[in-house]
Specification:
This protein is of the alpha/beta class and 251 residues long. The strands form four sheets. The protein has an eight-stranded parallel sheet. Strands 7-9-11 form a three-stranded parallel sheet, with no helix packed on it. Strands 2-4 form a two-stranded parallel ribbon. The termini are far apart. It is elongated.
């Protein structure tokens, strides 16, 4: 029985693959960077770090390292040189350190996925340069600090997920109400506290807003509670949007 259990466990563990620098697609980009527009190597159990030479792939529009699990190290500042990039997938890896300020140079970037990594620290001020950003998933990391007020300037954001960062604190800035294209806002299971600002009532496209598990006040501003598109808003275990709207909860 023990032997059978061992073989079953071994079979269910993904085998570690080669380092990124030895992958054929990466080598092709390194050999001919002028013809490299997409580098997509997800879910291959790649190991090692992101080589700094990736910064020479100046025509790259999509870079996908998602779900490799075993990639480590910090994110090189050279990522900021990929100014043609529109999509960057670094999720489900073991990257540590901080989000580099240089990412703010990626003014064409529309999608940034860094969720379920060990990235830590505050959101860098450089992120305010991501003026095309539509989707930012940074949940289940080790982020800390607070939500910068200037996030409200990223007017194209439609999906912002910062949930499950227990060290993420501060209050919800009223400037988030300026993100009128936002349809998903996840801040649950953080240390964010205070009251939800009434300005969030301007998020008329928002259909999902999760703040359960944060330290926010249980009082939902009327401007937020009656957003017509809002279908999911559990503030706590016993507080659903339907119950709040029916008057069967504290207002």
């Amino acid at each position: 029985l023990l032997l059978a259990t061992f073989f079953f466990a071994a079979a269910t563990q993904p085998a570690r693959g080669a380092v990124l620098a030895e992958h054929a697609d990466y080598e092709a980009c390194l050999f001919s960077p002028d013809s490299c527009t997409v580098l997509s190597v997800p879910n291959l159990a790649l190991t090692g770090t992101i080589p700094t030479e990736v910064g020479t792939f100046s025509l790259l529009t999509a870079f996908n390292l998602g779900s490799n699990r075993f990639m480590t190290g910090t994110l090189p500042t050279e990522l900021g040189k990929l100014t043609a990039l529109t999509a960057l997938y670094l999720d489900l890896n073991s990257f540590a350190g901080f989000l580099p300020e240089e990412l703010g140079e990626l003014s064409l970037l529309r999608e940034l996925y860094v969720f379920q990594t060990s990235l830590a620290g505050a959101l860098p001020a450089g992120m305010l340069g991501l003026t095309s950003l539509q989707v930012f998933h940074a949940y289940e990391c080790n982020l800390s600090g607070s939500l910068p007020q200037a996030l409200g300037t990223l007017s194209r954001l439609t999906d912002l997920r910062l949930n499950d960062n227990p060290l993420f604190a501060g209050t919800v800035p009223s400037q988030l109400g300026e993100l009128t294209a936002l349809s998903v806002l996840l801040l649950s299971d953080t240390a964010i506290s205070g009251a939800l600002p009434t300005e969030l009532g301007a998020l008329r496209a928002c259909s999902v807003m999760l703040v359960a598990g944060a330290s926010l006040s249980r009082r939902i501003p009327t401007e937020v509670g009656f957003l017509s598109a809002l279908g999911t808003f559990p503030l706590g275990l016993f507080c659903t949007l339907a119950r709040w709207r029916s008057g069967d909860y504290e207002k």
